[in-house]
Amino acid sequence: MLCKLASISRSGYYQWLKYSDEPEKDHADYLLVKEAFEAGKKKFGFRSVKMELSGKKIVMNHKKIIRIMNKYHLICKIRRRNPYKNIMKKSQEHRTFENKLARKFKQANPFKVFCTDITYIPFNYRFAYLSAVKDIATGEIVSWKLSRHLKMDIVLGTLETLKNTILAPLKDVLIHSDQGFHYTNPQYIFEVSKLGMVQSMSRKGNCIDNAPMESFFGHLKDDVDYKNCKTFEELDLLIEEYVKYYNHERQQWDLKKMTPVEYRNHLLEYAR
Predict the structure, then answer these.
(1) Which of 40-44, 76-80, 84-88 has the highest mean pLDDT?
(2) Residue 54 belongs to what domain range?
(3) How far apart are CA 262 and CA 116, in angstroms?
């Protein structure tokens, strides 16, 4: 009756009963595989397990190792590819640009070559993000935006401010950045091209290619007491005051001991 309810044959039941008290046939090999697997801090795949066993003079077929690992759920925790990074690489929308700046940080003409980047600023157990654009010729911060998040509007807002701040035409002006997600985004590329500007990008993993921005962010974090800000609005005001100080009051040795704005006016006067 029980065999009928379980939909099994009586002969199958008696066959199972005959061997039910015997140890499982894979158990001894499982212990060997488990020992090798744990020796690798549970990060070994079947190839590493096989090499570990071979080092102990234990011969076991790789197919058997795979079967035992699957059977006993000895799953290797592997670092998987970032799907968004793969999508970005395969897509022609997110694309990088040639490093046209090529570390030519000595520029003689204002409003011709800009660099831009984003940095994080910690305050009151939170983070804010600062996007800025710097004129390489004069060192002047010509546009900036502080944001609570890293959405696209942080760089799009910086571009909008740049367009409204710079009275000179932006056509054919070079704007240099790293290869971050924001700057390879099709929306950013479209807005830059709409302004007639030319994109340039640092080589991958070369932060020195964008050294002028790194220098500004370094000075800002040294000079500004941002950690004591209680609110985002307080931090925003502090950044605004510092940018004004940096542009109009902070003299720089390499700018003939002038401030960025003074040096900009000096270059424009000299060009006439």
Answers:
(1) 40-44
(2) 2-71
(3) 21
